[in-house]
Amino acid sequence: MDTAVAPLLQDSVNQDDNANKQPRNLWRFFCYFLHLFLVALHIVLLVISALNHAEHRITLPFDNEALTTGLSGGLQVFYIVRHAVTV
């Protein structure tokens, strides 16, 4: 390779590498943020569970079967769509 061309090629590679670092840093921050959020949610759930199962006292009685069936079906649709997007 010509010695006059090599520095020009190296500069273009460095510029491309610097341009790619910004999105990678953003994704890295996003991943760390989501991971910390997930850890915080687990800690909150463990604290609630440790308080003599306080989650059992926070319930909503549904006497309407159509409402519970619709809620169950809606959650299944949400899970299916979420898994289709993430996989």
Helices and strands, with pairings:
Layout: H1 6-50, H2 65-86
Total domains, how many? 1
Low-pLDDT regions: none
- Give the tally of β-strands: 0
SSE series: HH
* Helix content class: over 70%
Radius of gyration: 26 Å
The coarse silhouette is flat
| Average residue pLDDT | 81
What proportion strand? under 5%
Largest beta-sheet characterization? none
Keywords: Membrane, Transmembrane, Transmembrane helix
Transmembrane segments: 26-48
What does this protein structure show overall?
With 87 residues, this protein is mainly α. It has one domain. The model has no long low-confidence stretch (mean pLDDT 81). 0% of the residues are buried. Helix content is 77%, strand content 0%. It has two helices and no strands.
Keywords:
single chain, 87 residues, mainly alpha, transmembrane, transmembrane helix, 2 helices, membrane, 77% helix
Short synopsis of the structure:
The chain has 87 residues and is mainly alpha-helical. The chain has one domain. 77% of the residues lie in helices and 0% in strands.
